[in-house]
Amino acid sequence: MKTGFIGLGGMGTGMARNIAQAGLLSGLYNRTAAKAHSLAGELNVPAYERPALLAADMDIVLICVSADDDLLGVINAIAKALKPGSIVVDMSTVSRFTAKTAAALLAEHRVDFLDAPVSGGVEGARNGTLAMMVGGSAETLEKARPVLETMCSRIAHMGETGAGQATKAVNQILCAGINEAVTEALAFAEAQGLPMEKVIEVVSGGAAGNWFLDRRGLTMTRGVFAPGFKLALHHKDLKICQEMARQAGISIPLADVTVADYQKLMAQGYGDEDISALYRLKKPAAKASGEN
Amino acid sequence: MKTGFIGLGGMGTGMARNIAQAGLLSGLYNRTAAKAHSLAGELNVPAYERPALLAADMDIVLICVSADDDLLGVINAIAKALKPGSIVVDMSTVSRFTAKTAAALLAEHRVDFLDAPVSGGVEGARNGTLAMMVGGSAETLEKARPVLETMCSRIAHMGETGAGQATKAVNQILCAGINEAVTEALAFAEAQGLPMEKVIEVVSGGAAGNWFLDRRGLTMTRGVFAPGFKLALHHKDLKICQEMARQAGISIPLADVTVADYQKLMAQGYGDEDISALYRLKKPAAKASGEN
Predict the structure, then answer these.
(1) Residue A156: beta bridge partners?
(2) What's the rounded Cα separation, in Å, for the pair B70 and B116?
(3) Spatial contact of B278 and B183, defined as CB atoms under 8 Å apart
(4) I need a surface site. Which of A124, B22, B237, B268 has the fewest CB within 10 A?
């Protein structure tokens, strides 16, 4: 089964390397051609000049781009060129409605579609340890599974088209809420003059324990915000979540607060920092101005 | 070193049993005398009729009561009776200001004080696996440690008097925020029609992973709210946190939201349920009314 890959950002590059390492990669495309040529040389596969040319050659096309419009642009560019019976797997984080639109466009050409967003970040993409949340038919997933397993340590089939994106949205909403919770609690701890390392250690061991406190707690109180997960990207994802919530008639007030907080930080030029930079808005005032 | 215990609620009973099991318990007092007599018979130690009578006989007095006023009532009752050089350890969750008041009252009688709130719940108290956050002098802690170790798997010295309570407050604020985050995200997931067991499993493995989602995620979506940690007690703790935040000049907006939410639930008669009953306010409307 010939496999092509479109979208060689931080995530896509790691993913493509792992597919190639398993001997399953047959071609690459990237909007910025230089990146595709460099990686193609390294992995000894062709770099295509246009996505449709790649699509015509493949049985399965994997996509990893940034935003909903980017994905639909790629889908429109490749739909006609794809062979009937081939499979498109989108690993970008987009709306469940966009996933449905993509699936419908491809179905017209008898091409199957999976929405398959991942979590685990650039590190997970590099190490092949991503967690993948898949929407679409179980049969299609089984066909694609040998390729997907080269990138993932866990693949969960969540339901029909869009269910993968809906699950990713749950993850992003929860990350937002936990970010608000951890930054608020640690700012309180600093305001109480507590030894932060000890606080994080003792609190981590109990009912308030969480991944984010463990991995980002101490660095945020030290003013270190190296990504990690870029704040501007989480903001983009949460805007998608807000639209999905609106259409489902459910409110997500904590995610709404996080969107507003991220907008403040982006306006101050912190969009490329890790999401833990939310601590900038929470830390005690005396610390913020360097006094005390 | 003769050890007495005051306050035999759900937590205190488990704690006293573990001290007795180590052969270190010399007496009990409880406001409701019947409870003290029953446990005293089981553990083969005397039950005292008044806290001052117990205090006069002991080298170390451990206290585990509900609220700030209860603690100060006990302290006032025992202060004069205690021998100079004896130690009082309070394991209740109260304000850091109350801890300082208690320490000052006892210092007049040359009695040392530790504020030593715990986390780990009734189960941790029963199993002797509590995490303890201690404020007060390191020297006093070392004297008390053999007794405290019979109840705890972890003892962290956080700083001077009040630092134990301040750390417990951090823990309670974080629990509140995480409760808001998890209930919001799972309500969104239900509104999207996702399979909840799979969602919780896949999300738990990533950057949004946390203890509360792991242990309370599935039960809350099934409408099971057996404590756990009683909502009315968390509400009481958060009121203390609000006062500590106000005095430190820092805002804790997420904890404020949780206090308001808990008040709604308590007004509806849910105060004795687990804190995960917050999900009652978040779950999608169709589910709430049993329709769909």
Answers:
(1) A133
(2) 16
(3) yes
(4) B268
Interface membership of A33 toward B (CB under 8 Å):
no
Predicted TM-score of the model (pTM): 0.92
Distance CA B288, CA B242 (A): 31
Least Cα separation, residue B155 to chain A (angstroms): 9
Q: Please state, in angstroms and rounded to a whole number, the distance separating the CA atoms of residues A105 and A75.
A: 8
Catalytic residue chosen out of the listed positions B35, B83, B100, B168:
B168
- Give the whole-angstrom CA distance, residue A216 versus residue B189: 26
Do the chains contact at B206 and A120, CB–CB below 8 Å?
yes
Q: How far apart are CA B38 and CA B213, in angstroms?
A: 38
CA–CA dist B65, B214 (Å, integer): 30
Distance of alpha carbon B237 from alpha carbon B146, whole angstroms: 28
Say if CB A232 and CB A271 are below 8 A apart.
yes
What does residue B181 show for φ and ψ, rounded to 5 degrees? -65, -45
Would you state the structure tokens that stand for residue A154, as one six-digit string? 């866990």
pLDDT tens-place values along chain A, 292 residues long: 999 999 999 899 999 999 999 999 999 999 999 999 999 999 999 999 999 999 999 999 999 998 999 999 999 999 999 999 999 999 999 999 999 999 999 999 999 999 999 998 888 999 999 999 999 999 999 999 999 999 999 999 999 999 999 999 999 999 999 999 999 999 999 999 999 999 999 999 889 999 999 999 999 999 999 988 999 999 999 999 999 999 999 999 999 999 999 999 999 999 999 999 999 999 998 544 443 3
Non-local (6+) Cβ contacts of A210 within 8 A are A178, A182, A204, B178, B209, B210, B211, B212
Contact state of A210 with B206 under an 8 Å Cβ cutoff: no
A269 touches chain B (CB under 8 A): no
Q: Rounded to the nearest 5°, which phi and psi values hold at A213?
A: -60, -45
Q: Using CA atoms, how far apart are residues A184 and A236, in angstroms rounded to an integer?
A: 22
Distances in Å between the Cα of A183 and the Cα atoms of A145, B163, B207, B225, B251 are: 39, 19, 15, 27, 12
* Beta carbons of A203 and B254 less than 8 Å apart: no
Q: Please name the amino acid found at residue B111.
A: V
B90's tokens: 């309070």
> What residues of B are in contact with residue A284 (Cβ under 8 Å)?
248-250
Neighbouring-strand partners of residue B112? B87
Q: Which residue has the tokens 């170790």?
A: B149
- Which residues pair with residue B60 across a beta bridge? B3, B87
Complex ipTM: 0.93
